[in-house]
Amino acid sequence: MSIPRVIIVIASSLDGRIAFPGGGESHLGSEEDKRMLNQHLSMVDATIFGLGTLIAHQSTYLIKNLYGNDEVTLSKKQPISIVASNSKKFNSNWEYFRQPIRRWLISSSKVDNSSNNDFEKQLFFEDSWSKTLISLKKQGINDLALLGGAKLINSFIKEDLITDIKITIIPQIIGGKYTWIPQEETNEIFNLKRLWEIKSIKNLMNNEIHIHYKKI
To answer: What is the pTM for the complete model shown?
Structure first.
């Protein structure tokens, strides 16, 4: 059984940081990077991120219709937003739960975390992400954008499930602990033989570079 195409969409500093040392909500990229994000997310069936990302932002990015005269309207078609979490720490006052999107939850807990009806659907994590992605494929998800956080990205990478990486490099050195792949406690190398080819490179404003890598 095939699985969805999984695309990491991320903005990172030169030293691999995706947020400032203080944490919290942040978007490192420029307005042009945000337009790239808008374009990428308009091409997927669903997005997925972990609870930490939701707590930091308390919302998700909404696809917009961008017109040449600077007019902006909200797109009627939004990807399904999937949260991967075993926690019940959802706050119904977050903007996320007022946004005009379909919300799904993936959890390995057999307890119904969606009893408050904040989530339209709950799917169970089936021992591995490869098995869980098969379930998502059966639900009609063919293209999935992985938006973070680092632990979730790491879990997908360890199972070699990433098909594309769309990354904007921000010409800053930030420091701190918020890297897009967490540090391992061991020195084991994984996926060293996995090769990636460049599909496109685009120069953005503020000396940013957007690179699309595809798994070979």
So the answer is: 0.91
Confidence (pLDDT) at 60? 96
Are 166 and 176 a contacting pair, CB within 8 Å?
no
Q: What is the pLDDT of residue 183?
A: 77
73, 65 contact by CB (below 8 A): yes
- Burial class (CB within 10 angstroms; exposed 0-12, middle 13-18, buried 19+) of 166: buried
Distance, in Å, from the CA atom of 113 to the CA atom of 45, rounded to the nearest integer, reads: 23
**Closest to 199 measured CA to CA, from 190, 187, 210, 188:** 210
Cis bond before residue 149 (omega within 30° of 0): yes
Weakly modelled stretches of the chain, pLDDT under 50: 113-114
How is residue 8 written in tokens? 């990491």
> What letter would DSSP give residue 17?
B
154 contact partners, CB below 8 Å, separation of at least 6: 181, 182
pLDDT tens-digit readout, 138-195: 999 999 999 988 999 999 999 999 999 999 999 999 998 888 988 776 666 666 778 9
Q: Return the bridge partners of 164, or none.
A: 7, 214
Q: Which residue has the tokens 């707590």?
A: 55
